[in-house]
Amino acid sequence: MIVQRFAKWAGEATTRERAEAATMLAEALVHGGAEGSDRETILASLTLLLEDPAVAVRLAMAKALSGGRHVPRTLLFALAADVDRVATEIAGRSLHLSCADLVDVAAIGSPAARRAIAERPVVPLPVSAVIAEVGEADAALALCRNDGAAIAGRSFHDLAGRFGDDAAIREALLQRGDLPPEVRHKLMLKVRDVLAGSALVTSLFGQKRAGAMAFAAAERGTNVLAETLPSGQTPDFGEYLRSSGAVTPSLMLRVVVAGNIELFTTLLASLSGRTERRVAAIVSGGPSSALRALVLGCGLPEGLATLFGEAVSLWRQIARGDTTIRPAAVPALLLARASAGASHGGHGGQVMPEALTLLRQLAGEAQRDAAREAARAAA
What does pTM read for this prediction? Predict the structure, then answer.
């Protein structure tokens, strides 16, 4: 009888009056401790207001219910499926929605509801997975920018695969400290392609040089990324590089010249099929002939085997403290030796012109890095 009288009143009341009633009923449900028949009456009245034609009424109910922890899921799900203004209030703020509830809303809700979920202070892994798999760009961007969102490796791959061409999402992903190195590398390659195809860059440098600059920047980034990895992640990253076709002679040369011996060892092991322990023994202390045979067995040119051997020898001396050579001077020293060998017709003469060009580039990079470091130290 009470509900019927309420329905009659609602049919004659103004929108403002119905919105105020929705707020009072919802707050009574959440905070009033209503029990028994009183609670049933309140629920029936709120259920009736779910069909109210005015969005303001349903929004008032959603705002009052979103802060409650003991709200029937039927009410919450009905409001979460409402128009965007109402749905986002529940999807983004409701304290009563469980992880499973949020998964359901993210899967079947509106784009606005998914974005609201992605912006919640805490987003559990399963919820992030749904948004990464089916969410729109707005929701994906909000998720990537949310430090409270827990995102699994598979979800990062989904986000990068679906939105890697979106500059804002790509940047947000790259800013995350929990981004897997393989995904970070894939996004770096996306940036490389964007740079190589940039109308501004190609107009300034020409298409061929722009492509070469982008390629070199990506390989330098690959080496820098590898240097930041915890030791235990290097083998998996090296195998990823090999399987994705990212291992090139120029990358190998850059890695060993920079002194990233761990990645160099991993790549040689991956290319040769030998165990990493065996390759590490050869690189760290084996005879130069063993290293040369290992490199040639990977199908790499003989000239590179010579450069690799000299670079490894230099880094061994630096590691033992047997030389005063600074690490930053290694590229220039290798360039000088390779150039001298080429001019005198020694085994350095077999070094490819491309390798000499890369050594010049690496020497220049090392000089600029050293100058920047000195400037920072003096500041």
Answer: 0.82
